[in-house]
Design brief:
The chain is of the alpha/beta class and 225 residues long. It has seven helices and nine strands. The strands form two sheets. Strands 2-1-3-4-5 form a five-stranded parallel sheet, with helices on both faces. A four-stranded mixed sheet has the order 6-7-8-9, covered by helices on one side. Helix 6 crosses helix 7. It starts with 6 loop residues before the first strand and ends with a strand.
Length: 225
């Protein structure tokens, strides 16, 4: 199976509740979202990381979205921008529309379906390029268990989970087994729809080695990625 590409988005939004809703919705699909709460933090992040798309609110601390449009570093000079604003900011909308990097603006409250449509247009991808992680439910499968150790498979995408939850789920799955000398984990490609999947697997390896008092070299991870 070929894993679909993941698109990186910088979200500049000072309202934590709005940001959480946007992140939760976008990361259901193959978007990785980095979140900052003001224009200064956004500019710093844009100097360090290249993004596929920028989503920015207008009203933010330190400097606003209009200022940010004018301060995009060269690294992200060609990165498309979607502006988030409210209906009573007509002058702001007109001012923002003169920026060549601006591909769309959306009025709050954000219609998520329209947001996805505008993002696809900005990235020049079809709706068929989107991967709904909910279509790949996560499960742990026991493949083999011997005196030497256990072999399991991680199938699907652990969407909405963190490393602590993953370790807890796997530990619960393994708890009925006798003392383990080694753990072989086969990872399906869908796992990598999960944000930072490679780093998560390494953290999982360390946590499981510690929990079962075995060497890190005894926790073997096989991927097709």
């Amino acid at each position: 199976m070929k894993v679909a590409p993941t698109y990186s988005i910088l979200l500049a939004e000072d309202d934590e509740n709005n940001a959480e809703l946007l992140i939760r919705y976008l990361e259901r699909y193959n978007f990785d979202v980095d979140h900052v709460i003001d224009g200064v933090a956004a500019e710093i992040r844009l100097r360090k990381t290249r993004y596929d798309l920028i989503l920015t609110d207008n009203r933010m601390p330190k400097f606003d979205g209009i200022d940010l449009l004018e301060r995009i570093p060269e690294m992200n000079g060609a990165t498309p921008i979607i502006f988030l604003t409210v209906s009573n900011e007509k002058e702001t909308i007109i001012q923002a529309a003169h920026n060549k990097k601006l591909v769309a603006y959306l009025l709050k409250p954000i219609d998520m379906r329209v947001l996805i449509e505008k993002i696809c247009q900005a990235l020049k991808i079809g709706a068929g390029s989107l991967i709904d992680k909910k279509e790949y439910p996560f499960e742990i499968i026991l493949l083999n268990h011997t005196q030497q150790g256990v072999e399991i498979e991680l199938k699907g995408c652990p969407y909405g989970k963190n490393i602590e939850k993953l370790v807890q789920e796997i530990s619960l799955f393994l708890k009925e087994l006798s003392k383990l000398n080694s753990i072989l984990i086969k990872v399906n490609p869908e796992f990598f729809y999960f944000k930072n999947g490679t780093q998560v697997l390494y953290a999982l390896k360390v946590r499981l080695a510690t929990k079962y008092e075995i060497g890190k070299e005894d926790v073997i991870i096989q991927t097709e990625h």
